[in-house]
Structure formats: C-alpha cells, structure tokens
Design brief:
The complex is a heterodimer of chains A (about 90) and B (about 475).
Chain A (H helix, E strand, L loop, with lengths): L1 E9 L4 H11 L3 E10 L2 E9 L7 H14 L3 E6 H8 L2
Chain B lengths: L3 H13 L3 E9 L9 H16 L2 H12 L3 E8 L2 H5 L8 H14 L3 E8 L6 H16 L3 E6 L1 E2 L3 E2 L1 H17 L6 H4 L1 E4 L21 E8 L1 H9 L6 H30 L3 E8 L9 H7 L10 H19 L8 E2 L7 H9 L4 H8 L9 E2 L14 E2 L57 H6 L2 H4 L16
Helix pairs in contact in B: 2-5, 3-10, 5-6, 6-7, 9-10, 9-11, 10-12
Classes of the chains: A alpha+beta (about 90), B alpha/beta (about 475).
Chain lengths: ~90, ~475
C-alpha cells in the first residue's frame, strides 16, 4: 500500500536523516522524496510503500507522530488515495 | 508522483480550512420489523440495527486514521417509523423511539434519524399517531431525530399537517424547556424530503431505498471561503468556476470515503450528498462565503442572489465528482450554528423575512432559529428552534419592547387597512376553509379525524355487480 509522509518543521541540520532513520526502522520503503524550504520552513513530502512492513497502519501513524514530536517535527502519514481522489480526474 | 503543491494544498485544507467528512450515515430498512405488539416491534428494531450497524463506528475510525481526514459524525437513518409501527394497535410510539435511542447508543453513533412520517398527500392512522408521539419521544430520548414531510412539488402542501406541526413544534419545545428546547433541534418539517439524505435531523431511509446503504455527507464552507479569497474583484463566471472546482475536490473525497466504508462494511454505496454545512467555528461559515462574494453583511440586498449562485456552482461542481450524487443540499443556513449568521443576526441585518427569501433558492428552509419566549396565548410559546424546512409560522416574532397582539404592535391602523382585507381575527393561527377558527390544541383523536376514510364511509354497493356496472 502506498502512502504519503509529509514532514513540516523549522529548518535545521539533519531532518531528512532523522526522518529516514525513523521510517527505515519500521521497515517502510521510501519510493520518492521531494523537499523544499518554504518561508524558512522545512517541507518534505515522501512517497512510501508500507507493504514491506508487518506493522498495522495506525501503529506506524502513531509511532511517526510521537517520535516526530520528540524530534521537533510534525510528521503525518496518509494513504495516497486521498490525494489521488482530490487532484486526479 | 503527485505534485507536491497539490499534497500541501490538501493538507492545508485539512489543517486550517476545516475540511471534513460531515457524516457517514447508514440507511437501514426496518419494514420487516413490523409486529402487532409494539414492544416486540421495538425489540426487533433494536436487534436489527445493532446487527447491521455494529461495525459502523470501528470502520469509520479506521478510515479516519488511514486517510487522515476527520469523519465528524457517524449516523444511522431508518425507515419512517410511522410505516413500521402502524402494524401495532399502540397509540403512543415512544417505545420505538426509546429502542432507537438504545440501539444508537449501543452502536456508538451520534444520531439516529427516522422517527418520521410522510404525509404530503394525507395521513394514515400510523402517521397521525407518530406525529402525536413526537414531543414525548424527543423529550425521552437523546439521539433520536424526527422529521415529517408535509409537502411535495407533485402533491402540494398538506395544510392540515402544517397546522398540526406548528403545535407539535411548540409542544416539543415545552417538553424540553428545561434543556433549552433541544427537542426542536432534533425535529424537521420538510417539503420534498429526500429519501437518501445523510444529514440530520432530516435523515430517514425512504421506502424506495435498498435494505442497507452507506450515504456520505461532505462539507467544506471553510475551503470554499479560502478559495474565494483569491477571487476578489474577479468577474462572476470566474468566481463560479472557483466554487465549482472546490466543490469537485470536496466531493471526490466524499466519494472515496463512501467507497471505502461501503466496501469494508459489505454494504452498497448509496449517495454522496454535497453540502456546505457550517459549524459555529470561525472560518467554517456559509455567511462568510456570501460576504466574501461581495456582500457587506449577510442578509443585506443581494444575499439571495449570492446564495443562489453559490448553490448552483456547488451542485454543478459536485455532480461530476461522484458516481451517485444525492440530496444536493447545497448550502445549509442554520442561523445559530453559523458564526457569520450569528453576527449578522446580532447586527439586525439578517431577519426572518430575509431568511424566508433565502429558502426560496436553497433546499434548506428556516433552520436553527431561536424564537424568544413570548407571553401570548398561542404564538411562539417556548423557545422553538426550527430545523430544516420549517415553514409553518412566518409571522414576525413580537417586538421585545412593545406590547401588542401577534403583530407586536406593528399592525396597521384600521383606517389604513386595505379595503379587501377582513378585520383581524381575535384568534390567530392558520385559517382553513370550513372551520370557524383554529383549534386551541391538537388532540390525537382530532388528528385522526382528519383521515378521510374515517370521516366518510365508503357506500356499500347496492347490488352485487352494480359497483362495477359502469365498466
């Protein structure tokens, strides 16, 4: 199942490294990554594949949220479907 | 991969523009629960609802987690109870309402709708009994919503039902006076009721509906408002285009949620009802959309035109987005549930008359309007909150600082009165031909008296075969 991970935070060194460690520790595969700085704010959107992990989706979600909070990052994960539905005819 | 800008736009809608799925409503047919004993009927209803809707809450919560979109309400709508309960001899249908309430609490849903009667063309015995049961049923339950369809474009308006519902609204307000007349917030008087409506309090599962179906109501006044901020000073057609595009996106999301929910529950997908349903939260208001379109204050000249255009564009945008669109509620205009409407009513610009005009271009009628307690014999007793489609009493509420009759002292002096107009009646209320004056209060037997076959006996055929002799 494909999902979109979005990360928002005040820019600092090592955000991508932190997020990638977090995601790989859960056996989730990163397929694509797009990162930019908007008004000094770090903004990253990742396409990931969750079929490589045994963990249920809500567990991944809560783990990303709590671990992200510890690192000072706003991380969320949503299924790709919702973006597909809204922006592709 | 998807465009990053699109993804960020969606996340912004969810985070800052109050985008949500307003409701996932499961429609359940209860026709097969009819039984001559009302308690047995109530038991069957309870069992069937718990069996079919038991998984509704966990499934919706799963979808919320995966898609990251809040589903604000999970609801159940059932077959109009008047149709189910009239198999019994019971006069009071409150036990059925209590069973619905228990079932709703067991399933963990927010509301259950369908304590309803469809009387646009006339009453059946069950309809009359149900209408009489409404005040007590709504006072004794927490989650049950009631609705009565009193008219349709085809059948016209059943004025007897309108008159009866006027009194029922007041009695419901009185029965729940200690709780801010909350009973009236759970009651709808309709014209052209929609059978697959997912929105409360008017949801019921119409007789033409399948055994069980998932209907989804989407909302998003905040999203439209934000989209319109970029359209300041642009021509009308461009404004309409922006609303259409936004409505399309919102409805697509509703379609996705409806498909997922119906797939997981093993229930057919009914409709997506696109609406702009406001909440009291700042930034989630329909009135503010109208003001963003160029009105100084909602309720001023041009409000009706702006609302008509908004509804038209919302419906056109939503139609293409979903396989099955139902209801097409357009914009809701509940006065006490909309931050901008509250402000407009406070400033005195938004009046009952203007709201009445707005209902002409909007499927939602006079909605959630608090009418102050008045010390008159018949009018506006209790603090009635009228929900969708409530149309039976358009008279102006009494002026707070003036004593006077039902016109609050605004009545024209006798000399100024039109020559054709008869002198004002001492007793107010809707006048029906053939009746000298409206009755003081409806009694069950009085309502039942209105049923024609009770009144006029069908003549027995004089001789065998003569009845059909004209053939």
């Amino acid at each position: 199942m494909k999902a979109i991970v979005s990360v928002f935070a005040k820019d600092r060194i090592g955000i991508i490294a932190d997020v990638c460690v977090l995601i790989s520790s859960m056996q989730v595969n990163i397929l694509d990554l797009n990162q930019t700085i908007m008004d000094g704010f770090f903004t990253m959107v990742m396409l990931v594949d969750t079929s490589t992990t045994d963990k249920p989706f809500d567990e991944i979600r809560s783990a990303l949220e709590t671990e992200g909070e510890k690192l000072g990052l706003d991380i969320r994960i949503q299924r790709e479907d919702i973006f597909d539905a809204m922006h592709r005819v | 991969m998807l465009n990053t800008f699109d993804i960020l736009q969606t996340i912004d809608m969810l985070d800052h523009q109050h985008l949500d799925i307003r409701t996932v409503t499961m429609g359940i047919n209860l026709m097969d629960c009819a039984h001559p004993d009302i308690d047995e009927c109530a038991r069957r209803i309870y069992d069937k609802i718990c069996r079919l809707a038991g998984d509704l809450l966990p499934v919706c919560q799963g979808i919320e987690t995966e898609l990251g979109i809040p589903i604000v309400n999970k609801r159940i709508s059932v077959t109009p109870i008047a149709m189910v309960a009239q198999a019994s001899d019971a006069i009071d249908y409150t036990p059925v309402a209590v069973a619905l309430d228990r079932a709703a609490k067991e399933c963990g849903v927010n509301f259950i709708g369908g304590f309803s009667a469809l009387v646009q063309k006339g009453f059946t015995l069950g309809d009359a009994r149900l209408i009489e049961s409404i005040p007590r049923a709504l006072a004794e339950t927490d989650l049950v919503c009631s609705s009565v369809n009193v008219g349709s474009t085809k059948a016209g308006i059943n004025m007897d039902a309108v008159s009866a519902m006027g009194r029922i609204v007041k009695r419901t307000a009185e029965a729940t006076a200690d709780r801010g007349a909350i009973g009236c917030a759970k009651l709808v008087v309709f014209c052209n009721a929609v059978e697959d409506n997912p929105f409360m309090a008017g949801a019921f599962c119409g007789p033409g509906e399948p055994e069980c179906a998932i209907n989804v109501g989407v909302s998003g006044p905040g999203v439209v408002y934000h989209a319109l901020q970029s359209a300041k000073g642009k021509p009308f057609d461009e404004v309409a285009e922006i609303i259409k595009k936004t409505a399309f996106r919102i409805t697509r999301m509703g379609q996705l949620v409806a498909q997922k929910a119906s797939g997981r529950l093993g229930t057919p997908f009914g409709v997506v009802d696109l609406s702009l349903a406001p909440t009291p939260a700042v930034g989630d208001s329909v009135a503010r959309i109208l003001e963003e379109m160029g009105l100084a204050v909602c309720g001023t000249h041009g409000t009706t035109a702006a609302l008509a255009m908004l509804n038209d564009a919302v419906k056109k945008g939503g139609l293409m987005a979903s396989g099955r669109v139902g209801g097409l509620s357009g914009a809701f205009i509940p006065v006490s549930e909309d931050e901008g409407m509250i402000a407009a009513a406070r400033s005195g610009v938004l009046t009952l008359d203007k709201l009445e005009a707005m209902t002409c271009v909007c499927s939602v009628g006079l909605d959630m309007i608090a009418v102050p307690v008045a010390d008159h014999r018949r009018h506006h007793r209790g603090r009635g909150r009228h929900r969708h489609g409530e149309r039976q009493d358009h008279r102006r509420p009494p002026h707070p600082h003036r004593e006077g009759g039902r016109h609050g002292g605004f009545r024209r002096a006798p000399g100024l009165r039109s020559r054709h107009a008869p002198p004002p009646r001492e007793r107010g209320g809707l006048h029906r031909p053939g009746r000298t004056h409206p009755r003081a209060a409806a009694q069950p037997e009085e309502l039942i008296e209105l049923i024609p076959y009770k009144k006029h006996k069908i003549p027995e055929p004089e001789a065998p075969g003569s009845f059909y002799s004209f053939l």
